[in-house]
Amino acid sequence: MSELLARLLFASIAVLGRLPWRMLAASGNALARLWQRLDLRESRVARRNLNLAFPQMPEAEREHLHCAILHATAHQIFETLRLWTRSPAENLRKMLVDRTGVEVFDAAIAAGRGVIIAAPHYGNWELLHQWLAAHTPLAILYRPPESAVGEAFLRLARADAAGRVTQVRAEAAGIRTLLKCLREGGVVGILPDQQPKRGDGVFAPFFGREAYTMTLLSRLSARSGATVLFAYCERIGPLRFVLRIEPAPCDVADADTRVATTVLNAAVEAIALRDPAQYQWTYKRYTLHPSGDRGFNPYRDL
């Protein structure tokens, strides 16, 4: 039943995703204005995150950034509908106008030690996923939604016709799959700025605050010897992106998890600061506190 409902949902979205971009962009602008006018969840969480990450920023500047974030987030949703309902070859040909660092990626694959792609929630990560799948066989780690229909939908939307993408659930068996892939010289994609489950991370600074941060990436790199690269598709205009691939700092695989996660978060920060409006500030990144006291959750009243 979940598979059937997911297919029906995907068919409905396919109709929407085929609309001209001017109509989808207008829908994105309307959605952003709705979020802001009614102060819905996306608006409240983004504002709280900006207050936490940029406490010294003048209020007028922070409100301007808040508005830009809502518009960029809404546009990213409708961009993704287009990506999921058109062929990856068409998307890459029309939307990806430049590529930097591809030679670094190719060299890392050729070295045969495995490659971990750290892909922050910046720009459009679904376009990055399609480029990677077109370039190499790939295993991607994902955290399944609570809804079985939602998970079935995501697996359907992110599937590739050539079967080059293996979607791996974030659980013990999945981690073993990733490690095996890396030891065989394969490529693994991980979203490094998702808050892990309790017990799967440590606290490290992120925009000046302690954030619970995954240790999985550093552990996989240390155990497999894989090269870690950061990759993202940065928006430079309407439906126009640049692919950027950059080497990760060496200490991202340090044996000291505090050191490794601090370096990891600093690298994500540097990417987010390229254009803060393109980062996913609508995500509750700071729900856990080093004290363990749930009363310190800054989103509790939202």
What does this structure look like?
The chain is an alpha/beta fold and about 300 residues long. The chain has helices spanning about 1-15, 20-35, 40-55, 60-85, 90-95, 100-110, 125-135, 150-160, 170-185, 215-225, 255-270, and strands spanning about 95-100, 115-120, 140, 165-170, 185-190, 200-205, 210-215, 225-235, 240-245. It has a seven-stranded mixed β-sheet, sandwiched between helices. A two-stranded antiparallel sheet has the order 6-7. A hairpin with a 2-residue loop joins strand 6 (about 200-205) and strand 7 (about 210-215). Helix 2 packs across helix 4. The radius of gyration is 19 Å and the shape is globular. The mean pLDDT is about 90.
Strand proportion, as a percent range, falls in: 15-25%
Would you tell me the overall average pLDDT?
Answer: 92
Radius of gyration: 19 Å
Task: Give the spatial strand order of the biggest sheet.
Answer: 1-9-8-2-5-3-4
**Element string (H = helix, E = strand):** HHHHHEHEHEHEHEEEHEEH
Give the tally of β-strands.
9
Please state the overall shape, judged from the principal axes of the Cα atoms: globular
Largest sheet: 7 strands, mixed
End-to-end Cα distance: 34 Å
- The count of domains is 1
Helix proportion:
40-55%
Segments where pLDDT lies below 50 for 5+ residues?
none
- Summing up helix and strand content along with how strands pair, one would put the structural category as alpha/beta
Tally of contiguous helical segments:
11
